[in-house]
Amino acid sequence: MSTPRQAHATRWRHALSAYERRLAHVPPPPVAGRLTRMVGLTLEAEGCQAAIGDRCEIVSSPESHVEAEVVGFAGERLYLMPTGDLHGMRPDARVVPRTQAGTVRIGPRLLGRVVDGACRPLDGQGPIEAETSVRLAGRPINPLLRRPITQALDVGVRAINGMLTIGRGQRVGLFAGSGVGKSVLLGMMARYTAADVIVVGLIGERGREVKEFIERILGRAGLARSVVVATPADYPPLMRLHGAWLATAVAEYFRDRGRNVLLIMDSLTRFAQAQREIALAIGEAPATKGYPPSVFARLPQLVERAGNGVAGEGSITAFYTVLAEGDDQNDPIVDAARAILDGHVVLARRIAEAGRYPAIDIEASVSRVMHDVVSAADLALARRLRQATAVYEHNRDLITIGAYQRGSDPRIDEAIARWPQIEAFLRQDMHERVTLAASVAQLAATMAEGPADAARAKTTPEPRAAQESRAAQEPRGARDLKAARDARPPHETGAARK
Ligand SMILES: Nc1ncnc2c1ncn2[C@@H]1O[C@H](COP(=O)(O)OP(=O)(O)OP(=O)(O)O)[C@@H](O)[C@H]1O
Ligand SMILES: [Mg+2]
After folding, report:
1. Are strands 343-346 and 171-176 parallel, antiparallel or unpaired?
2. 397 band by pLDDT with thresholds 50, 70 and 90
3. pLDDT in the model for residue 422
4. Alpha carbon of 52 to those of 78, 219, 264, 398: distances in Å?
5. Protein residue whose Cα sits closest to atom 10 of ligand 1
6. 307-326: per-residue pLDDT in tens?
7. Which of 225, 284, 389, 488 could be stapled to 493 by a disulfide with Cβ–Cβ 3.0 to 4.6 Å?
């Protein structure tokens, strides 16, 4: 029998050991330091203990504080980059490390909202109810567990659906110079795609364009099933990086819940430029065209997060715009993007100038997963249209000045005969939606057997293999022609019958 005194002591012992156990899980108090130097956008702090990616608060007075992120260190010195405006910072300001570095809270209520790179609302619609904390940098997926790309995604644009069919989980580059119709094309895909959720990352573009994209191009209906993350050009470079990461994290959130997501990132070039600004500011040496090596490490890290999830999860199909400055296709970012993406759609200025929108250069564009998501017959039709386009484009000058004599080359004769239908197929008004089925049917109608084939058959004997493959396509071509006539707008039906 214990005395009341002993029982009291035992209770105390238990209580103390419970506290001791809880103490083991409490993080150590942050060790604050002070701001010692600021050059350009780079801040240097001494005395504080923080790791790369940690957020710190820099307090120069009770009213003036700025958030910054640790981006590098040298010995005891930490390099930080601000995520906001630096006005009012003083030497010796306190630098206080914060917990929860590199995470952001998101949830399903983000649908229909416009936020910045820190997930703060920009649309004046009140605070966002978030349910989960996610890492901005995402979580890696075992590449062997990812589902392969086997299903096509309807993007609502005829030339892409028919000629460059996109697979669910594919990552595609949209390469173009300025003003050739990137935003309009992305907007069309956002409005017309069969994906469940659209996540738009507007990274480093002009502020005016953000409003225009949301109001004019995406529209109210498009925004309802979209999440827009906007970090325009006047935001600090770190916020622009965060914008791209947050947009990808939001896409991952919906993918993990089984949704098929279309992620649109405009632009990957501005993301690379933001990383270049940061890397150069903390002393990394420039390599290719002023881009330090870390830029080329960051690009695949970002892009690899898109794609299919593991079994039971959804997919992220991603379009990244890449600025081909001065329409230069050898820009290092264009080159890097071409290598890490599963295909690219090239928009050409000469086509836009000729008034054909979307200004897709079919010859220069490729979807590397198309053969996995369409039938052999549809692939063959696309190849035939591609070949006819190449023949026409290579002889365009001869044809337009009248120097080409009909009958000299049956391939050119066929290309000339089909050209009006091919142009009609590739052209699409921004307010027109063309489903995947209608696109394929219209492609079949455009490349259907016709007078051009008859003429060719008379002038050149066809090789046996070609005859066989043609025979294999015929029944489908005839079937599709009927479907296409039903699906086509009346003015195009007339053109197809001619
Ligand atoms: N499908 C289309 N149908 C008709 N006009 C189009 C179409 N696509 C683009 N355009 C025309 O091209 C113009 C420029 O398009 P857009 O703003 O999308 O270019 P951009 O490449 O995004 O330009 P920037 O480099 O300035 O961002 C549009 O204002 C519009 O007039
Ligand atoms: Mg644009």
Report:
1. parallel
2. confident
3. 92
4. 9, 39, 28, 61
5. 181
6. 888 888 889 999 999 998 66
7. 488
Q: What is the pLDDT of residues 3-23, one digit of tens each?
A: 888 899 999 999 999 888 888
Instruction: Spell out the residues 6+ positions from residue 142 whose beta carbon is closer than 8 angstroms to its own.
Output: 310
Residue 355 CA: which ligand is closest? Answer: 1
pLDDT tens digits, one per residue of 272-321: 999 998 888 888 888 878 888 989 999 999 999 998 888 888 899 999 99
Tell me the pTM: 0.81
Cβ partners under 8 Å of residue 461, min gap 6: none
Q: Is the CB of 292 under 6 A from ligand 1?
A: no
What is the arithmetic mean of pLDDT over 400-414?
83
Hey, is 75 helix, strand or coil? coil
Q: How far is the CA of 68 from the centre of ligand 2 (A)?
A: 30
Give the mean pLDDT of 79-96. Answer: 85
Provide the token pair at 449.
């057997």
d(CA 184, ligand 1 centre) in Å: 5
With cut-offs at 50, 70 and 90, classify the pLDDT of residue 226. Answer: very high
260, amino acid identity: N
Ligand whose nearest atom lies closest to the CA of 182: 1
Ligand 1 contacts CB of residue 43 (under 6 A) = no
C-alpha 335: how far from its chain's center? 16
Helices 268-281 & 237-256 angle (0-180, nearest 10) = 130
pLDDT in tens, 245-260: 999 999 999 999 999 9
- Nearest-CA neighbor of 293 among 314, 305, 306, 275? 275
Cβ atoms 221, 191 nearer than 8 A: yes
Closest CA to 425 of 389, 397, 450: 389
Decide if 429 contacts 192 (C-beta within 8 A). no
Best of 357, 361, 429 for a ligand 1 pocket test (most atoms within 8 Å of beta carbon)? 357
Q: Closest Cα partner for 199 from 252, 147, 235, 158?
A: 252
3-state secondary structure of 14: helix
Q: Indicate the top mutation candidate among 180, 184, 203 to test ligand 1's pocket, ranked by most ligand atoms within 8 A of CB.
A: 184
- Ligand 1 atom with the shortest distance to the CA of 217: 18
Residue 301 Cα, ligand 2 centroid: separation in angstroms? 24
Half-sphere exposure of 325 (CA within 13 A, CB side): 8
Residue 347 and residue 176 in contact, taking contact as beta carbons nearer than 8 Å: yes
Mean model confidence pLDDT for the chain: 83
Query: In the 8-state DSSP scheme, what is residue 428?
Result: -
- Cα dihedral 219, 221, 224, 225, rounded to 10, equals -100
The CA 162 to ligand 1 mean position distance, Å, reads 21
